[in-house]
Amino acid sequence: MKHLFLTLRWLVVCIVVVSGGRARASLRVTSVGCPSISTVSLDRAVRFYTKVLDFQLVKMEDSSSSARLAPAMSLETKARTAKLSLGDECLDITEYSSPIGKPFAGDSRANDLWFEHVAIVVSNMNEAYDRLKVAHVSFVSNVPQTLPAWNKDAGGISAFYFRDPDGHYLELIHFPSGKGQPKWQKPSTKTFLGIDHTAIAVSDTERSVAFYRDGLHFRVTGSSENYGEQQEHLSGVFNAHVLITSLRTESGIGVELLDYVTPTSGRPIPSNLRVTDVARWQIPLEVAPGPESVNAIEDLSRTHWIKLPARDGTDQEAVWVKDPDGHLLELIKRGAHMEPVKQ
């Protein structure tokens, strides 16, 4: 087990690699919260998400002393964070002015293992696509793609990949009748409705499912095998053949695993990728309190959990772990008698 120790004032935080095969018990993750990304310009990022994609700015604050940024923290860390919402879902964006993170690699592809995106549900794909064209957004897909009818799990779903000003991948997705979560079928006058899931590239579906399902109590809610012209044009990856596995917990957004069968040229997450770097995402997972959760990470001492600021009177602690491919997860544990955390 690999440990990386960082200092947050007097607190010691541990980021560990947790193997699904080595877990002695199952952590019961009950909710997936607001994904978190880094930016080189918070003001620019907020303008993009609010003006182009209709997110709402909930708050913007100096987060230099926030325990939520513990993996990046030292006494010299300077940061600002904006919380944005879209429908019932949210996104956290942080700008680190010290230390300054590395920008997105210019040659990043959708099959690289640091790939992650959030899927933004739209009520009308043509209207959403027109909005992106007017804003001169950087496209990954050439045009919105509708998956073919022979794909019984994903057929009829239309999607479009693009990138924000920092280079983060994003997806527009439209679910036809009978596909997706029931909430996305409700009539709406809005174009951009919310976030359905975050998707991550993985190198081994079986290993990742064992980690998330068996180790973290996610449910497998669907799977598909996508290939052909539409998948190539969607991802911008020639000869793309992808195994897709959808995972969900009791509440919050889903997590989607993208395993590229071909091409096999996807690169691993660099070992030196920092939280401050633009390519690094964080996924917060709320863990049910109780002895099972403690036993499941019994290799960590209590000092590896840090106190989070009280929210609505709730006592919370967090620890950061990496999944088998190196995606960063924030496990949040509430007090045993507390109400669920409201995002």
Automatic annotation (TrEMBL):
GO biological process: L-methylmalonyl-CoA metabolic process
Entry annotated with the keyword Heme: no
Keywords, alphabetical: Metal-binding
Keyword Metal-binding: yes
GO MF terms, alphabetically ordered: metal ion binding; methylmalonyl-CoA epimerase activity
Domain VOC positions: 31-175, 194-334
Protein name: VOC family protein
Lineage, broadest ranks: Bacteria, Pseudomonadati, Acidobacteriota, Terriglobia, Terriglobales
